């Protein structure tokens, strides 16, 4: 049995982990039956992993936020809905939850209670936060285990760029966040601690506002991360949510630089960042960043007709359940309301809606502007469906990471 390599981005291998490969085989079998004219129904399995948006509230006003259209809309998920949803999904195969997006998760009044609930159900937990309320994470740090992680969205190496990039309310400073992060890691070294850096190049505008470039600070961010006990720095390119479709896209509006100039600037920033890391910490490049640097974005924007990823992961938000993070808040991506997983009856109805989405949502057309993180996984599954190989021949890999 092979091991899972490049586990951050190899999503098709994640689905072949020994304990979850049965769901992959069931799904491929169902798709084959459909394409042969059968009337089989979607296997009644919940998502393996979800993005869970606890609240739309946010105490930052980041100009580059791709969720700005749903931020601070007063919507929030109440604890009972979350509890019922988690318990129902856990009974149907849920293994990991990422608290992220649509708002700042630590602003939810029951944040600590929710983390406790997740760990009681033995669910892996990832927390994406702006770092302003790390004290709330610290209160539940002892519950986090090997495989759980906390990733801070910082996007800067210096105070002035941090302030311009995030526009925090109150006296929130990069130095204070980094100190709190260091204390969190010291309190529980098992936590994987990440420093997230969205790369902004010169000339990117949202509305009439030009974003603050930060490429020159990539290496300084690595030095800060190294000095404060982070395990990795994750670099990703700036995405823009298009005004006409509200979908996330990359290089649809490249800004004031040519593609070659953008690539050269990022490559130089990465080279300096890796030198600053000095082999003492990981430097991660997102799937879409790698594609940008290798001029493979058209490949990531070429999707199969069927988005298979939606069977394995969804997004639960205060405004509903969506089948993809890139379509969070977009009506075409909605498969249920916010109570879509809260109980057996709601779950079955949502799964029926999901089946309709898998059958009818044309990703080849609808997602042609999206540099999809799951592009490789979707095509891998598409080819597996088209193959005449028995599903039992799909080779499992050793379990060690369930996040999608």
Q: Would you write up a description of this structure?
A:
- The chain has 404 residues and is of the alpha/beta class.
- Helix 2 (21-35) packs across helix 15 (375-386), helix 3 packs parallel to helix 4 (111-120) and helix 8 (218-227) runs parallel beside helix 9 (259-277).
- The chain is globular and about 60 Å long.
- The protein is built from 15 helices and 14 strands.
Radius of gyration of CA atoms, rounded to a whole number: 21 Å
How would you classify the helix and strand content by structural class?
alpha/beta
Low-confidence stretches: none
Order of helices and strands: HHEHEHEHEHHEEEHEEEHEHHHEEEHHH
Number of strands: 14
As a percent range, the share of strand residues is 5-15%
Report helical residue fraction. Answer: 25-40%
- The number of distinct helices, counting runs of at least 4 residues, comes to 15
Q: How can the largest sheet be summarized?
A: 10 strands, mixed
Overall mean pLDDT stands at 92
The N- to C-terminal Cα distance equals 21 Å
Order of strands in the sheet with the most strands?
Answer: 11-8-5-4-3-2-1-12-13-14
What does the overall shape look like? globular
């Amino acid at each position: 049995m092979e091991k899972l390599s490049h586990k951050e981005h190899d999503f098709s291998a994640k689905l072949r982990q020994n304990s979850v490969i049965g769901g992959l085989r069931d799904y491929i079998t169902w798709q084959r039956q459909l394409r042969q004219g059968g009337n089989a129904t979607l296997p009644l399995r919940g998502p393996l992993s979800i993005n869970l948006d606890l609240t739309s509230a946010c105490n930052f006003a980041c100009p580059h936020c791709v969720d700005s259209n749903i931020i601070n809309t007063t919507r929030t998920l109440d604890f009972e809905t979350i509890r019922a949803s988690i318990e129902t999904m856990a009974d149907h195969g849920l293994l990991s939850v990422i608290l992220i997006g649509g708002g700042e998760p630590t602003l939810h009044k029951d944040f600590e209670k929710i983390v406790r609930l997740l760990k009681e159900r033995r669910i892996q937990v990832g927390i994406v936060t702006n770092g302003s309320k790390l004290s709330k994470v610290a209160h539940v740090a002892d519950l986090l285990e090997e495989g759980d992680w906390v990733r801070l969205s910082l996007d800067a190496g210096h105070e002035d760029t941090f302030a311009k990039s995030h526009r925090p309310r109150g006296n929130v400073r990069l130095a204070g966040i980094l100190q709190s992060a260091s204390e969190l890691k010291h309190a529980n070294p098992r936590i994987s601690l990440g420093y997230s850096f969205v790369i902004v190049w010169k000339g990117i505008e949202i509305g009439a506002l030009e974003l603050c470039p930060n490429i020159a600070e990539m290496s300084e961010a690595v030095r800060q991360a190294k000095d404060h006990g982070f395990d990795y720095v994750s670099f990703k390119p700036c995405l823009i949510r298009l005004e006409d479709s509200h979908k996330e896209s990359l290089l649809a509006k490249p800004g004031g630089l040519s593609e070659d100039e953008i690539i050269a600037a990022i490559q130089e920033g990465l080279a300096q960042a890796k030198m600053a890391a000095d082999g003492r910490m990981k430097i991660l490049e997102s799937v879409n960043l790698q594609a940008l640097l290798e001029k493979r974005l058209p490949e990531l924007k070429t999707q199969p007709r069927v988005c298979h990823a939606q069977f394995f992961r969804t997004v639960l938000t205060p405004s509903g359940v969506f089948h993809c993070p890139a379509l969070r808040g977009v009506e075409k991506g909605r498969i249920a309301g916010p109570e879509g997983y809260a109980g057996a009856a709601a779950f079955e109805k949502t799964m029926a809606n999901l089946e309709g989405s898998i059958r009818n949502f044309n990703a080849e057309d609808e997602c042609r502007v999206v540099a999809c993180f799951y592009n490789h996984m979707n095509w891998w599954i598409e080819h597996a469906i088209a193959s005449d190989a028995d599903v039992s021949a799909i080779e499992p890999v050793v379990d060690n990471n369930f996040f999608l």
